[in-house]
Amino acid sequence: MEASQARRLRHAIIGVGAGILNGHRPALALPIVDLVAASDINTTIGQQRADELQCAFYADYRQMLAEMQPDVVVILTPPFLHASMVIESLRAGCHVLVEKPMALQVAEADEMIATAHRYKRVLGVVFQQRYRPEIMAARKMLQEGFLGKIQRVELMAVWTRPSFYYQMAPWRATWSGEGGGIVTNQASHNLDLLCHLLGSPRRVFAWTRNLLHQIETEDTVQAMLEWQDRALGMVHISSAEADDPEHLKIIGTRGSLEIGRGKLLARTLDLDMSEYALTSHDPYAQPVHHPHAITLEQGQGNHIAVYRDFHDALLHGNSDYADGVQACQELELANAMIYSSHCHCEVELPLNRQRYSSLLKDLRAQ
């Protein structure tokens, strides 16, 4: 019998009253999960959820950590609480799985990662969209060099939200509660996929705007990116528009990939563009493209896949999951976009932590 089957891991939840709990419920039913406790400052809904999950309830998560001593803590609280709760849970000897974004600013993420290393615990971040079949297939193709040298990346994503969405919680789309708006909340999934597939960019120039909503932060971002190998990219993400949920196009010297929700289109070139540019004697002809057949696996990105990889990491040392170091890349990119827009400048990564902290402090004061 495998270790993951023989051993059950004691789990506890901080923020069990959160709406996102429903996404976690199927994963909490995995055989390896022994849910022993849950906590929430809203004692009414917290107790109700704990009763549904058949576990102990605590109003004070610190008391829960001390008394229950769980193997794993799952944190579902609002973003401004993530950093402090993750660090406390790690210091209590727990492995931690936290909802995105892992923190409000990259300096906090650095401390979270350092604490995980210091206490030899696994820190994971919930980025379930990495497990969408089309994303997994695209990543494999990119790793195998299917596209040759990457030249251009285009990402457009729309997360349409009405005003009512922002009124549901006072921390939403505020500098103190989320450290931003669309960039740090919904766009975190898209930015994570960019970094997951292509690595972190080295240069960013961005414009954040509030085009529609009466909120403190932005509802739209437009950015230009450059990667280390000189590939160029464009990003547009908004909660103030009505359009297709997501379109990601990656162009390389050998072909292209177009990724949407549940679909992946691939094309190959007869000749690598580097060879075509040197050898073609027709000044106007286009290289010949061919469709490339792809069979996607069944299923879709969900929390079960996140939990399974997280458990595999803490039991067997598997690192192929969204650990703190990987997840920090999207947060740094999000912070860089906000900094670029508000300071009207191009930003080179790694982002200067002190300067960003100063900017965030000023934005909160305003």
Automatic annotation (TrEMBL):
Gene3D superfamilies: Dihydrodipicolinate Reductase, domain 2, NAD(P)-binding Rossmann-like Domain
Pfam families: GFO_IDH_MocA, GFO_IDH_MocA_C3
Domain GFO/IDH/MocA-like oxidoreductase: from-to ranges: 136-258
UniProt domain Gfo/Idh/MocA-like oxidoreductase N-terminal: residue ranges: 10-125
GO molecular function annotations of the record: nucleotide binding
The protein's name in its UniProt record: Oxidoreductase domain protein
